[in-house]
Amino acid sequence: MRIAALVPFLSVSAFAAPAESDAHHDKRQAYGVTSKYCSTASGGLCYLQYYVSQTAPTYRVALPSDAAQNSAYDVVLQVIAPNSLTWAGFAWGGSMIQNPLTVVWPNGNSGQATTSSRWANSRSQPTVYSGATLKSLSSSRNGTHWSVEVVCTGCSKWNNKGLNVNGPTTFSWAFSTTAVQNPGNSAGNFPVHTSSGVFSQPLDYGKNAKTLFTNYINKKG
Predict the structure, then answer these.
(1) Rounded Cα gap, residues 87 and 14, in angstroms
(2) Cα dihedral sign for 148, 181, 19, 101?
(3) Integer Cα distance of 119 and 167 in angstroms
(4) How far apart are CA 148 and CA 137, in angstroms?
(5) Which end of the chain is more exposed for a tag (fewer CB within 10 A), N or C?
(6) Residue 170 pLDDT exceeds 80
(7) Closest CA to 84 of 13, 175, 12
(8) 151 phi and psi, to 5 degrees?
């Protein structure tokens, strides 16, 4: 697993059911490496980490260990992406359609980032989703990567569905290399993804003691 290249950066700073293809959507990639990542810089908080390649984002998910099936609880999402990527997205229900989408992108070179909660009912530009709220915990940028970490309220449960805390949960992701035209506007449009993928894994790697999880959110927020 070639995650070592990200370590210096972190020490400084801290989407469709079966795959399909059309003129705007490539077949989703279903490869990558999942692992447990624990950060001493964050007081020992652990994440379920998904790594694809050096040219794609790394996604990390953390949650409290007392999270119950079909219940609402906060979840933390961390995204580390190469500077060549203009935005990165994460679908909590494993599909672009009808589940919360978290989309993030850098806002210039200052290390600031824009976060946006979205929802799509079809394969078209996702609209702003009020059912999930995002609070930024950190963002940074160096010569090779940018990173964003958010806590999402409303991403663990939606309609009559939600994350599976008792077995594998399927997530999907996407990113683009085409510039976001108005990067300061969280409600603005963003380009169609360049690539997308899916992975399925139990959430156990990302479970943390409730006190540790809550203290981390409160300290960072």
Answers:
(1) 20
(2) positive
(3) 25
(4) 8
(5) N
(6) yes
(7) 175
(8) -110, 130
